[in-house]
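Q: Structure tokens for this one, please.
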Amino acid sequence: QVPLEDHVIYSGNLFQYIEENKKWRNRFCVVPHNYGLVLYENKLAYERELPPRVLVNSAGYKVLTSVDQYLELVNNSLPGVTPKSGHSPILKCPTDFPLILWHPYARHYYFCVMTGKEQEKWRAVFQDCVRHCNNGISEDSKVEAPAFTDAVRMYRQSKEHYGTWDMLCGNETQVLSNLVMEELLPELRTTIGPRLKGKAQERQRTWIQISDAVYRMVYEQTKAQYDAAMAKCEQERSQMESTIRTDMDQIITSKEHLASKIRAFVLPKAEICVRNHVQPYISSILEALMTPTSQGFAEVREVFFKEVTDMNMNIVNEGGLEKLAEYMEKLSQLAFHPVKMQLCYEKMDQLKLEGLQQRFDVSSTSVFKQRAQIHMRQQMDDAVYTFETLLHQELGKLQGKDDLCKSIQRILERVLKKYDYDSSTVRKKFFREALLQITIPFLLKKLAPTCKGELAKFQELIFEDFASFILVENTYEEVVLQSVMKDIMQAVKEAAVQRKHNLYRDSMVMHNSDPNLHLLGEGVPIDWGEEYSGQPEPESATDKRRRAKQVVSVIQDDEGVLPYEMGGEGLLQPGSPEPRELEEPDPGAPPSSPDGVEEIREALAQESLASPKPSADVPSEATMQCAAPASPKPRADVPSEAKAPHIPPASPPAPGAETPSPSAGMACHQPSDKETGEEVALPASECSPPQPMGTTESSEGVQTEF
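A: Here is the predicted structure, written as tokens:
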């Protein structure tokens, strides 16, 4: 259930801009299995289990790699306030490789790194965090989740907002907060914007802080009200279920009677609208969706094939089962490797609905891109799980290295065949859902002037006892959906018949074609390391945390590219604007982090001149990535933990789990998927400072900002 429980996605050093003192500081960032961004003072603070500085839930954020992109979004957020040319912008970056997390309502986070390769890797990791956190409403719930999203969509339609919505992301409280801010922000901008004083940059900075403060207040109030509503629903649930079971036949009869009346009224108008405004464009929309999506799924297949083939060649070169556990443990996390999966995800960037986007009121294609990317990750994970389960079944029958390699090749071919059929099914379902998502709001908007006002008269057809179970508006939308569903199903079927983009007809799927597939039920995940590597004794929790494997390999060792480790600085105390400096720093300690932009640039220049050539003993990232699959030597980037001197930190425990109390007496607070914005951890031994509006105090002594 938690595939990355004993792993971290990535960890490493980067610079963060601290707005309070307007300085850049070196931070150690950890991305645990729940995809929260956790920022520590330095790596030592993480290893000692000291509280993190900041926890970020990245739902709703955009990852930017250009200051110009960021400045454009900031200028658009407060119309009429634009810095004059020649004036210093709101943000200066000390390197050419910024990473900025931008949110339309919440506070922004500014980072930078020293090389383009680091920037690309962190960008892939950040985007994976955003993708995961955006998908915050559990899909396991077959009733509550659709009911919630339908309620949000209908509310927006009542405000004349049809079409897709970019901010339907995060958990339920975050979605509702975004819904409130969508209406509240324009009013705030009109009221407060003209009263802001100072230079353009100061007004922009103030506006971002005001928006963030309001967003946190909205989040707090929304969370309390949503929790109360959910508690009320739960109380009424048993009574409603009892009524449904008792009166099911009558409810169904009443619903069918209502649907027939609405169908007779709406369907003729809807069919004309579909014929004139939707039908001519379905094939164009489908083609625009199919090309990048199918390329992305083909890339998933290629990445999986390459990883397994490379593993097989390495086993031939290095020797059988001894290395199999190491390679299989790496392969089992392939679907959650942001950098390797980025090649697949990037294919969706080609998705364009130009012309169609304006016609059908599609504000952005990001909803469809993200949905397809989530399907890609799931299909990769399914393929890896099938492969490792079938291989595990075969291991007991194998005689030697040659048998092992032949079995791997045979199982790979079987899994690829299964993947082709599975991905075809998933893509066809995705295309149907996307077409409905695009066309249904358009039809509802077109039909609203003639149909919406007449719906009230159908309410009298529903018995009062059944009014909670049969809703006129839902039945009306079902009728509209039926009017276009036939055309959508036909368009997807024709694409499959023509074998466009490697889609298969449903009749071609061969059921029970593999006698071993019934053995692939949900079972306990295979622990390759424990089962085959022969580790003697269990490690303590602290050692396990320190030595936990990392999904993405490190780029460099800690003392190579980022020399400004903050080991000589004390932790920032609450209320203190700057870290405490040691009076007599150790001459052998690494230099403290430079503060200003100019100082960092000078330090970087000195470092680039003084940096030694890489040692032949430690392979660089370029060497590790460029190892040819056909080479007789083992692939260097597979056993990354053995190659790099960096010991990857362990994943923090899941939210709500008990953590061992650290020796320093600090509470080590973990990121939660249910929180938004940042959390600032305070020492448990100190009293908390007075809390500003929009913050709460948890029992752990952690000030949590929403």
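A few notes: The mean pLDDT is 77. The longest strand covers residues 10-18.
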